Amino acid sequence: MKIPFLPQRRTALKRIVQYAVVGLFALSTPLTGALVQTTQAQTKPRFKSKVINLAYQTSGDVVKIRKTVEPRFKALGVTVNWIGPFPAGPQLIESMNANRVDIGTVGETPPIFSQAAGLKEIIYIAGRRPSKGANQGIIVRANSPIKKLSDIKGKKVAFQRGSNAHYLLARALREVGLKISDVQVVGLTPSEARDAFIQNKVEVWVGGDPFLALVEKSIPIRNLRNAAGINTLGGFYIARREFVAENPELVRVFLEEADKAGEWSDKNPGEVARAFAPELKIDALVLETVARRAVRRLRPLTPSIIAEQQRVADFYFQEKIIPRKVDIRDAVPSPQLLRAITPKRLGQL
User: Fold this and answer.
1) Domain check: are 182 and 204 in the same one?
2) pTM of the model
C-alpha cells in the first residue's frame, strides 16, 4: 500500500506524518569611540529570550536527567521549561513549528518531512554521533513464518511514519528489491506500534530502544534487519529558526551541556540506566542495554554531514515517499551563525 503524502492541513503533524542598540555616548575622538563600541559589542550578551523551551521524547532525554543546563541558564537569567514527553520526532516538530518548543532532538527523517511539507521554521543546529545500529530493527516473533526480510511483502508493518523507523524500513526493503508500497503500513506512534506487535495485531514491527530492548526481554523475537549501515547519521538537534537567530549564545550553551551529558552517558551506562528507570518505569537492567547501544555525544554540522542528510532526502524523493525534492541547506544556519552556536568541544566545522 503506497503511503500518500496528503495535502497540507492546519497542523504541522498532519503535514509531516501524512504527508534569530543600546546607544553609545559621544566620545572625544573617533578612534576612542570605535574602541568602546567594539568592546561593548564583544561583551554584550547575544540572546534575547528569558525563557528556553526544551523538548524531550518518551524514550527519555539524558540532558533532562542530568539537570546541568538549568544552572548555566539560571546564571544568565534564563528559565528552562521542559516540554513533553513527545511520542516521536514528528510530534516534537509539530510543537516546534507552533512556537511551543525552541530546541529538541530527532532522527534524520522528521526534519526532511518537515521541509517537504513546506515548513520553514525548523533548522538543524548540531548532529548526533551514530550508533552501530543494534538499537533499532525490523522485528517479527521468533515463531513467525516470516524468516527473511523479503517475506514481509504484503504483511502488516507497524511503525511511526516520518520517523527514523520509516527510513530504516524503506532502505531495508530496497535492499531486497521491495518498496514501502509492497507492505501494509500501519502508522502508529512508537509505543502504540510496539503494543500492536505484542498483541499480535500486526506481523511486523519497526522500532527502536527503549521499546526494542523491553520487548527483547519480554517475548522471543527475530530481528530481520537492524539499522547497521542504514541509520548512519545518528540524528540531529534542531531548533526554531527565529530562536536561533535571536539567541545564539543560549543555543551554544545548550549544545555544550548536551555534549557533556552525552559524554557522561556514553561512559556510564549503568548510572544512566539507574537515572532513567524511575522516569521511564522500565527495569534498570533493560535500560542498561539501551544505554550500551546508544551514542549520545554530538558533532558539528560539517559539509559532509549535510551532504549525507541530503542523500537521505533524495532517497525519499526517489522512492516517491515525499512529493518534492528538498534542499537541506535551506534548513541550515548561515556559516557565521553556525560558528556562533557551535561549541569548540564539538570539533571543527
Assistant:
1) yes
2) 0.85
Start-end of H helices in 145-296: 164-175, 190-198, 211-218, 241-246, 248-267, 269-280, 284-293
User: Which of 8, 9, 6, 11 shows the shortest CA–CA distance to 97?
Assistant: 11
Residue 64 burial (CB count, 10 A):
21
Residue at 322 is within a domain: yes
Pairing of strands 79-86, 103-106: unpaired
Of 79, 49, 67, the C-alpha closest to 258 is 67
Rounded to whole angstroms, how far apart are CA atoms 126 and 184?
35
CA distance 92 to 87: 8
Q: Is 44 left (phi over 0), alpha (psi -120 to 50) or beta?
A: beta
CATH code (residue 109): 3.40.190.10
185 and 107 in a common domain: no
Would you state the torsion angle of the CA atoms of residues 215, 217, 219, 223, taken in this order, to the nearest 10 degrees? 60
Neighbour order of strands in the sheet with 298-299: 79-86, 51-57, 103-106, 236-240, 122-128, 298-299
For residue 167, give its domain range. Answer: 136-226
Mode of pairing for the β-strands spanning 103-106 and 236-240: antiparallel
- Residues 37, 181: one domain? no
pLDDT along the chain (349 residues), means of 10: 40 48 33 40 73 95 95 97 95 96 96 95 96 95 96 97 94 96 96 95 96 94 96 93 98 98 96 94 94 95 96 95 96 97 89
Q: How many domains does the chain have?
A: 2
